[in-house]
Amino acid sequence: MAPDAGDGRLFLSLRNDDPAAPVLLQDARDPGRLLEIATLERPGGELRGAWILVDGPGPDLASRDGCLLAPRGLVWALLDPLAAGQGNRLQLQDPLAGQRALRREGGRLWAGLARWQGQPADLKRDVRRLLAPLPHAASLLDLFDALAAGGAADPFDGQSVPFATQPRGEGAAGTAPTGLAAAHPPPDDPEALAAWLEDPAEFGRLYGPSFTPRAEQGIMARDVAEALRTANPLLIEAGTGVGKTLAYLAPLLTHLRRTGARGVVSTQTRTLQSQLLEQDLPLLAGSVPEVEHRLLMGRSNYLCRTGERRFLERSAVTPAESWAQASLRLWLAATTDGLRDEVQDHPVLRRYVPEIFDTPEPCSPTVCYGPRECHVQRARRLAREARLVIVNHALLMVDFAAGHTLIGEYDAVVVDEAHRLPQAALDAFEVRCDASRSVIIEDLLGEPARSQGGFPSVPRRLIAELSRGGEVGESAAARVADLVRALQGALAAYRAWFASLEALFVDRRGQQRLHGKVRVHDRDETFGPLTVRTTAFLDAAATVDRAYADFAVGLESAPSVGDDLADELGTLARAVEMAARLQQDVAFLTTEDDPDWVVWLEPGREQGLIAAGATRLESGPLLGDLWRRSKLAPVLTSATLGVGEDFSYMERELGVGRLGRSTVTSLVPSPFDYREQARFLTTPDFPTPDTPAWQAAVAELVERLVRAAPRKTMVLFTSYAALQGVAGRLREALDRSGPTGWPAPRPVLLVQGSGAGAGELMTRFRQERHSLLLGTNTFWEGVDLPGADLEILVVTKLPFAVPTDPWVEAKCERIAANGDNAFIDFVVRDAVLRLRQGVGRLIRSRRDRGVVVLLDSRLHGKSYGMTFLQALPSPVTYCADADEIVRQTGAFFDAERPVPAEDGAGFAARE
User: Domain containing 220: what range?
Assistant: First the structure.
């Protein structure tokens, strides 16, 4: 047997967080056989000739001391393509959790081997061909073939596969999880609908005997139904636990059934979209089967055949590219919807995701439409055919700009997580000029010419074909050449303009370290020195317009080009369109002084310039115009829309006060008993955030909290610098005490920005029995951690917007110029809504209990502090100092309280 052939044995490995701890191995054929070895670097002994699954994404198979090591990432890329990015690290501190994870991995392995056995023979030959030059790859594939063909039953005997191996998909409406429909369909009348949701024989029938009616859900459904019936805009705040998604879906589906209209639900986060598609809509599907629903995401979330074809047709130069092409073929065979999400964390493909998905080319008329339509066109077609479409806020805005050509016309819209819509609107319609704008157009034109002065591949093919058409064709080909030269000249002029802007910015910046965008107060001062460069680019771009007009005229009289060149013509037109948009943006930045916009420069982290751009000051007029032109009366909902019962701030930001119709506001409080379920603790005796002692004080208090109450804890920060400072101190404290210096298992410290993504951190946080997570903006909202998954939440600082941010600064100036108090009317209100979102992470169901610790001393020393405290769902307990916070936290968890039965509505009881 060749030394790298393997002897047919395969072991799964598990490492402890402690590098000195032994490595646990489990036989994949005999789960009862467990071994311990000192290190994977020298497994040796009886393991010689065996394969071992080890942590990591790859990129190489390796031989160690006679054993063959297969990184989990490579194995799952071959056996579980749709979930290859998950489970590539089996490193748990808790031994019991570790053994459970090994058993789950064994079940996943054998499910993957069965999948491999069923792959088409030509696909497996392609994979072998692509991986043939790589060391040990053929041996690994031989192992898979042998195990899969052995005919043995899964020795793990039905151990649950831990990761979804089916795509999330656009999701046509399915059946309710219970397999039941209500006794009667949901009624149209708002009051009757509220009663239907509270009736155990109707809505409750979907849940069974554990159903508990909630009046708050019925109240919200009634208000939404009334707003849809009367076509009045509605702002409705629904506290955590109301079950707001079902409270708006039931009346929306009923409205669409009754009117025959189409509707849209827009959300900010994927988490909420998943809940709608996987839980809420399937639950109601049996009662309103007439309304089919689909998810639609932005273009770059789906694989287009242009990107697929370009990536697979190129030669693989490196082992990583060979693995990537093999992995892409396997993923293409498994995917239904071609979703970027499925490969975003793929251990092999993730580095190529931008190249594969972010293609500037338009869809190809020859390969993207028709019976074998690409995933982009399929998703859009299915969405236009559906009665209800689920989108995110960014796509909602893009569709407005595109005149509803993506989603299709619709009559009703519900915006969930509506507090995030104003920023999404500003982002969608901002102006941004950076170096990538010219690179994208160049990439669109194809591979550059090998000879100086030649043409890129796309126009080169077009010129060659047209030149075969005699004198008229040669004339048209010459006009293509003129157009391409004009484009190349305009792009060169843009690069020169941006390089000059960057050089000027770097010169003025000097050695100053800048954080975030820099406001342009005087356009003449910033862009005036670039007048020559600016004029050169604008003139060159105008030349492109004229050249394209000449080309279009010449093409009309040219010989007919075949369908095989329709792609080239479409690509060339797209390049011209993008150049024209770039011309408009540069002209706007440099020559138009619009008081409704703020202009900014975005510096690089260390040096240089990332972008120049402009953002609207007000979202309200923008959104109001979009609602009005589309004749929509939106339903806008969130857990945080008002400060108390005052909705005026969000009403302005969301633009609904500009529609000429009466806007209805409604506040539906949470049904949770926060006084019993939670404690909100704070102390005035804590260092202020701007003092050197603050980070050390935060780290010390957090360490003491998790010692006194060994519960899962999340600490929220407003800056990465503060997070990293506290994380460093906590690591030192944990290392000093060692693994045995704790009354319970030492907490696993998880830190945002340490290399792992937010999703991976959340998975690990849930898996570990005692974990401590430090996070920033990502974790302030959209995170659902019920029960024991989160019991202590520490808010280190009030989440004020950065005052030096150009948009915040300019908006404050606008408010002050109107005679209002910008700090109170804008900055504080915005921060209050952010704080409410943050503390909302803790109590997610009636059974949850937990402690919120608020450490910002400005709550006590500033006049606006009471505004924040009054916005919390329960009164705060004032503690004399940090010692009392620790005592109160321990006492809260020591006090046993009867736990109420969870609502039968389950996920409906959460936000």
Answer: 190-292+632-668
